[in-house]
Batch of 3 targets.
Target 1
Amino acid sequence: MAEAEEQGRKPSEEFTDESEEEDSEEEPKLKYERLSNGVTEILQKDAASCMTVHDKFLALGTHFGKVFLLDIQGNITQKFEISSVKINQISLDESGEHVGICSEDGKVQVFGLYTREGFHETFDCPVKVVALHPQFTRSNYKQFVTGGNKLLLYERNWLNRWKTVVLHEGEGTITNVQWRTNLIAWANNVGVKIYDISTKQRITNVLRDNVSLRPDMYPCSLCWKDDSTLIVGWGTSIKICIVKERNPTEMRDLPSRYVEIVSAFETEFFICGLAPLADQLVTLYFVKENAENMDEDFRARPRLDIIQSLPESCEEISSDALTVRNFQDNECRDYRLEHSEGESLFYIISPKDIVVAKERDQDDHIDWLLEKKKYEEALMAAEISFKNIKRHDIKKIGMSYINHLVKTGDYEGAARKCQKVLGKNMELWENEVYRFKTIGQLKAISQYLPRGDLRLRPAIYEMILHEFLKTDYEGFATLIREWPGELYNNMAIVQAVTDHLKKDPTNSTLLTTLAELYTYDQRYDKALEIYLRLRHKDVYQLIHKHNLFSSIEDKIVLLMDFDKEKAVDMLLDNEDKISIDRVVEELADKPEYLHVYLHKLFKRDHHKGQKYHERQIGLYAEYDRPNLLPFLRDSTHCPLEKALEICQQRNFVEETVFLLSRMGNCRRALQMIMEELANVDKAIDFAKEQDDAELWEDLISYSIDKPPFITGLLNNIGTHVDPILLIHRIKEGMEIPNLRDSLVKILQDYNLQILLREGCKKILVADSLSLLQKMHRTQMRGVRVDDENICESCHATILPSDITRNFSVVVFHCRHMFHKECLPSPGTIPGVQFCNICSAKKRGPGSGILDMKKLSLANQHIA
């Protein structure tokens, strides 16, 4: 149908109204092809007058009275010589086994396609229409209707004779008839009628709107959408009628069914045919010769539109103008539209041409997208519907898309699509790489090259790396970082980078990249050397990752130069690989670095670097005095004499005071605080810390002639020294700042001490009473005595075997139990008895004699 499409579509794009020009970018809904093969031969000698469509075949009637049965491709399967004049209509039943034919000379034939038995009759007037009962094949439905001046129903009775009934007459020529289930719809000069064959009632009359049009020139088009919906097209008017069941309460003398017109609207052109398409309508139009805005050469081209019906109007979905053969000579009555209910196939019949319209499939959709250069959408559509496409290949569409992007200069987009389109096809990948090289766009495709399981030849990757090395050092470095080292010949790239470094030996980008290449090649010592020279942040990661500690023993100073903190942390974390002695040896000439290292070592463990504590005293004094005093306090290994010497040389008073006190020379230390620091608060704190009466005496003696010192002492010594001692020694008449406040504070402190003592006493008394009560409650509790208890003296069971006789048991608060007879006599003090076991533990050896003496004395006293 290339010719029909070219002839039909291009004019439709050039000679349509403004709305069609605006919608030219919208995809058409239908595609067209000309029915050829046998049809071409037939129409060269004859002209088509009518056609009917079955799911399995086509039946074509001609102006010379012949009927041809055709397959779907248009090949002739059977030929019938019916008449010498025009065939007006052909009707088929649903099974496609029987056919009804009527012609302009009055002949009517109804026969089986496989048996010629049937009805053959010739009338004295032209028969315009014929329609078989849809179930004509079944014996009880042998019915058909014919129409000329009147509508006749033929029905074969049980005697195998045909009975005729006039269904309607008197309203002019019947121009169309359509039979669906039990409903027959026909059109005459007045309007459209519907007859219910089951109830033998005519149920409606839909009047013709435009009575000025000649019915023979602008015939009515009828089409059943389903068993109850009839579509009527006449002139420029379309009506959609629904046959409904009448409510039994409203029947009276009315038919059991009625018709409701649910949609009625006018169109711009004359209607030649109608067909349903889901919930839409396919309409064939004959364009008016005097229509406005139509070019003279194409004014009579038929149009096939898809419309959406609304209650009082319609919405155009698509519109195609068709250039059928000899369209300039055709009238509205020369066109017909037939459709196949099994498939969405629409046949446009004209005297010299038959065009088939089909719904566009996914392949057609992709064709249109490619034609409009919408490659992205075409590729997406192919991927989504890959199971349904037959004529297209996803890879070919993708390649077309890539070619288009390259032609338009979108090299980045083309390279990005390569990753998706080329997939795992190495040959296509290499071809694309060479094409990008030819157009000078290797950089665009570099980041999308496969680098996982699928890999191209190493030469491909090396070619791209060399290209970057010539023009873009940063891009080259990025590829080296991103690409696995196995993709290319590492030695070849190292040599290329080395050659470039000869021209620019200080280029940090090239040096860093060379270090990475050495790392891939496991030449870590060379990589480390470069990283250290560049002070690169990855140097520590490289050392850790590849365990290069043996390589850095002589590079510790370089590491410290780069980052002291990171270097020291790394060295301390790996003492087993680089010893403390080795580090100290390397840093001997860099005392500041040595101090940083030893200081962090001391913070981690006070004992690991103990042999260097003496050296650290001088390092702290030189580089970090704030941490000297904490070091002296925490270290137990530094020589105090050496430390004191250094501190005295540098006049470090606080550190000297600490060392003197630690060495036992507290009086000298206190003297330094008072004389050199002149800080009474520190002196008092020092005296409190030492808690030595002699130091307090020295402090008071030194302060007695210094009023500020006296004030400080009065404010602070109340809890350590009796303030009276100080007050008595103050010279009479000496002016002391804030003396009154100091004395008030002393009294307040004294009162506070008294209150604290009384409070503590009350708490002790309350606690004692509480505990005594608790002990009393505990001792007053009952004690369980059972068979498991034994006498602590005779070790027999505490309870006798015969509990009916009287027995006595003594239980002490300590939970020891005795038979009464097993206890010694309580003596002369009645009621006084002790647990032998607990008493022996408390008294110890030989205490029994003393107790006897006490008891003897007690007895004498009682006597």
Target 2
Amino acid sequence: MEVVKFQQAQLINSDLDMYYAKTDTPALCRTSSLVEELGQIEYVFSDKTGTLTCNEMEFRCCSIAGVAYASVVDESKREGEDGKDGWRTFAEMKTLLEGGANPFVDLSPVPGNEREVVNEFLTLLAVCHTVIPEERDGKLHYQASSPDEAALVAGAELLGYQFHTRKPKSVFVNIQGGSYEYEILNVCEFNSTRKRMSTVVRGPDGKIKLFCKGADTVILERLSEHQPYTEKTLVHLEEYATDGLRTLCIAFRDVPEQEYRQWVAIYNKAAATINGRGEELDKAAELIEKDLFLLGATAIEDKLQEGVPDTIHTLQVAGIKVWVLTGDRQETAINIGMSCRLISESMNLVIINEETSHDTHDFINKRLTAIKNQRSTGELEDLALIIDGKSLTFALEKEISKTFLELAIMCKAVICCRVSPLQKALVVKLVKKNQKAILLAIGDGANDVSMIQAAHVGVGISGLEGLQAARSADVAISQFRFLKKLLLVHGAWSYQRLSKLILYSFYKNIVLYMTQFWFSFFNNFSGQIAYESWTLSLYNVVFTLLPPLVIGVFDQFVSARILDRYPQLYMLGQKNAFFTKTAFWLWVGNALYHSIILFGFSVILFWGDLKQATGYDSGHWFWGTMLYLAVLLTVLGKAALVSDLWTKYTVAAIPGSFVFAMLFLPLYAVVAPAIGFSKEYIGIVPRLWTDAVFYLVLLLVPILCLSRDFAWKYYRRTYMPETYHIAQEIQKYNIPDYRPRQEQFQKAIKKVRAVQRMRRNRGFAFSQTENVARQDQARLIRAYDTTKTGARPSGY
């Protein structure tokens, strides 16, 4: 069995459908002991960023001074509802910056017209960050702590504001042909509590400014009065959120010299604090991050990996529940859930955002009771559960956890937002402890390792976040879409093959050794064996070695194409349909039946010993060898009946094994006695292999045994077919699929419902690595001087 499992793992490794040419990465099965569990998965726990998405951020849109800009603008967005406020392209923004014709009728209020606001906005993107520029092959590459950061700086470069050099105390930006130096005075770093980052800079004109970017919720409450662009920016944020984009708000303020000198003293004191340094720096930042002026917002697309929506939908059709555990904020996670078909428009969302343990407990109990009451009346609607990290902390407490799990299991999809790596593992362990189901966890980063190790089967994606997840997992793949073939094809095949291998292995041994047991009643339990001892040993080692191996490695109950077309066939593995107690005892009963028929007919035929044509008695070893070959042919015939796919290896293993036995045994029976062992075979070859009764027994008795099996197989397929029997016939006769297509109708419904549901949802993007105890991004960037060769950090 271990050999078969190893070969199944090798088949996964060598599958070209799971090879990713872009990174030259094949699938890698690190352990062969779990291959059959791939066919019995009921829950998939997935990370979002880098697993469902590419983790390649692209600067798509921005809203500046209440005007929306995008790289490509759809004609429907060119004109607003009242003929104004239409979207503009990035090319039109460049024209505005270069002093061309102003495409806007009205000039904006303070701090100036659109041109000044756009200049301030793009300057902020090019200056307020912790990115390190590197020049390779004549091109500028940005090294950032998060892909979002790099995308924003690349977006500024695209629009003519190129950040190209970083020194310990300043950055240099190319603006319309001229290089400008901005002195970095202080950096207030991003963390998940602040949800923003700020940079205090002294511009080329000597003025001090505070540049700030962050989540809309935290930026909007820190704005000064009389903001001209807030309402229009919020409308644009809603549109971006509906499209599943990650958003940030951009704001700034001028800082008087006197105010800065007072503040920097407080900041330096906080920076020198040993205990609680992070908290002190946050308090200092609060003092200066106020009275901001809103410039606009950015929208970044975290592209979904190819084939993700289809894969998630197919897994759900296959009866697998998909839970997404992500560090992103709720609105972004919901929108990604919509775009990847985890959540459909017809689903009712159960959103848990509570502040206390008591409120969380009450909310979960109320919703659970309401859902149970609704379902008791016969109303069955699909539900999706969305819970944030804070509420999840309370939901995982011992008193509430089982109630929370009961609610989650009733939902078709679950999204946990703003969760820590520890919470990911705790959610997996909660399901693992309370559900008798096989769990799979899939992720791509070091923060997913605990979740991957907590599940029964861990799958790592070798992506942009390194190989920690891939190295910690049982199976490594390079794209999420490969999970579909890994589970629905390789998993289903492996489970069915190993089930058949185990049952057949029991069967073939019971048939042979029960004939020996029946013989003991005729020899007064003297210990006399029916078969020659060496021949008996060769039964499992040589003559019936290949059939279970070939069935275990090459058998396919249906093809990969049919498994992909009908994912519901995967449920056979979840229900353990091929390896039940009933199936086991039926195989045992069948083996007993075959052994009785084989032994009974041979004893009746040889009752009182069979006389040969020569006049001699046939003898004990004549009868024993004939019975042995009849057993062998019956067992190989049974292997032929249960094989669903015949290949050249199947032909070599099943008919080939019997041909080999018929050639090897007479040769062995001649050679072995001549060299001093197996003397029971002396003179048996000319008597046995020339006797017509021997061939008659070989022909009739196995046919008599297997006729019952064949009749039962016919009856079952004709009158009580299983789902896979029907699928096998569809495959054999190549019957086309006539299921109705409703794609156009579903697209129209999706568009209407998405607008209705997403109107109030907004997401933000900012995923820097953070360490609360040591906020050291600022120290790191001050250690770089990219004007020097190699641009390696010094003194850090």
Target 3
Amino acid sequence: MAQPLVKKDDDRDEEADYSPFLGIEKGAVLQEARVFNDPQLDARRCSQVEATEVFFAVTKLFQSRDIGLRRMVYLMIKEISPSADEVIIVTSSLMKDMNSRTDMYRANAIRVLCRITDGTLLTQIERYLKQAIVDKNPVVASAALVSGIHLLQTNPEIVKRWSNEVQEAVQSRAALVQFHALALLHQIRQNDRLAVSKLVTSLTKGTVRSPLAQCLLIRYTSQVIRESGVNSQTGDRPFYDYLEGCLRHKAEMVIFEAAKAITELSNVSTRELTPAITVLQLFLSSSKPVAMTHPMAVTNCNIDMESLISDQNRSIATLAITTLLKTGNESSVDRLMKQITNFMSDIADEFKIVVVEAIRSLCLKFPLKYRSLMNFLSSILREEGGFEYKKAIVDSIVILIRDIPDAKESGLLHLCEFIEDCEFTYLSTQILHFLGNEGPKTSDPSKYIRYIYNRVILENATVRASAVSTLAKFGAVVDSLKPRVFVLLRRCLFDNDDEVRDRATLYLNTLGDGSVSETDKYVKEFLFGSLDIPLTNIETSLKNYVQNPTEEPFDISSVPKDVKSQPLAEKKAPGKKQTGLGAPPPAPTSAADAYERLLSAIPEFASFGKLFKSSAPVELTEAETEYAVNVVKHIFDRHVVFQYNCTNTIPEQLLENVTVIVDASEAEEFSEVDPSTGEAEDDGVEDEYQLEDFEVAAADYILKVGVSNFKNAWESMDPGTERIDEYGLGPRESLTEAVNAVINLLGMQPCEGTEVVPNNSRSHTCLLSGVYIGNVKVLVRLSFGIDGTKEVAMKLAVRSEDENVSDAIHEIVASG
């Protein structure tokens, strides 16, 4: 950078208004800045002023008495984060400022010292920091407290010694000091539940004056309430009276924080909720409205909330309209739809998605109003919008079609009109797939053919291929349409995309000769059935078939239906090689293939037939033991094979003649190995080693196999095989725990994301699918409910290809 052309005079050292930029010539600076435009940059020349040079230059400004400039000095030193050697240079100046008569110097010196110092120096200035915490000046006290909050992450033992001073600062009359002191005191005690409870108990008696500190205390109180639960004898919550008292505080932020805390209590009752809803209702009509929703509990607020739909704050307007949609009654639906129509054009896509989801919930709540709600969804579907917004609308229409039978035909037509001008390939293919499944079941399937074939003519290759599959589904189900579908599929044989041509050729050969005749059952299963084999397994099996030519045709039934992420799925000690059955074959393509190859290579197991399932390894020893043993359960149709994998973790020992005795101890013979020569000694030592027990559970006989469309798969099963019963699961912490317990018990694959239970949900439906031993497909529909005492009830419905298997699933649950 250009050097000053004028040197600072000695007699100006004490002038407070001296500028560090005095004497710098603008032209010289611009001239030197041209180096940044050179074709060959000189990195060293461009970075002449390094952080160290800046640091030393800045430290000279400690002589300045200008308050603004001094604040810039503190800021610069804190941001540069000097090295340990450089810190020593400014430490004395900062410690001098800590004892200055100027409060601004003291506060900033504390902040900077705590930022750049280490544990050794911290012990030297600890006395000053303790004094600063109880200083009469709130700026200095807050600076020390905030520094303590930061230091607690790096030097917790030192900060914890300040508890008495921090406790005294909590009683300060300064709002920010009390706020920072309470935050620091809670962090010091946060790992001690009893200490936190005592802190909340002492402070809820009215010693906190700062609204900010009061909000913090409300949050800490809510935490204690959640951990304490409800008093089993009186039914009261601890500290609830304090939260209710905060609803009458003079500060609005405290009132809102208390109302929020009450509404977020677990299993909150109507009596406890009423005071919070009352103050929130007052907020809705105030000049500073706050919108907050609690479905069905805020019905009394609807009149006040309707005025918020036109609020200039679009966030508040969105929350108001979604709350009205969730809490309104059937008679108010039409009026709300008229108000929303003008409202939608003024908000962003993320708010529109919230409104669409609320409309979907309202339609499911009042099915008779599906016409007006469906028309509204179709109208906004034709407007401008991004992918997520359009996807939310399409998903809503699809859900309404599935759950409200009367809405099927109008909903399908709305979707057909949308794909005529849809710019999103994903949405077009999803709609075409859904149309292929639902369209042939309508009263007049022929009216959808035009929309589908338009996609073959006008769209890209991905959408065209999807349209070909949809046409084939119509031809397979509706016999009268088969000749017309054949004509359209033949035209697709001349498409310029190979995927479209291949699909057309496949469907022309599977649908028959094109005459008006009933389609074979296996063709319908091929078109509408779900693929119950992982694509990874199909790919692997096809590669193996190509690499090992044979005269036999490829048999898809030979493809394993189970896949594991780890080859052999076995845990091995680092650097140790397994032997025997535990050793993997060269480059196994999947766990199922690897196990099947291992077992088929052993003559005793060759006659057992095809392997149905192999379990994940079950550890039979502790992780720290000298021998690591696990077992893999291989399930055949009529046999069960236990594969024990034993790993030696002691280099000086060599395991020999390892045998396993079921229902007894494991006998081993190992030899001592000389570490220097690596040769085994002649005399071995015989030893017995106890293993943990394990069991063959019901889940071992069920294979996890998902279905892409559970509803279609369920309807395709024979209703005569359905078995329904109800079970009590006893007290549970939550519905999530109950759902996971049943899924683990049955060992089946959750479908459509139904294993996830929404927060605070009192009921839930979970869908499971799998294959029972003997290749019998099984579908399970679980309906859970939980009451106020956390007792969980479950309704279990099972359909399968064999009614005996349906009975077996119920027996598993009943005995589990």
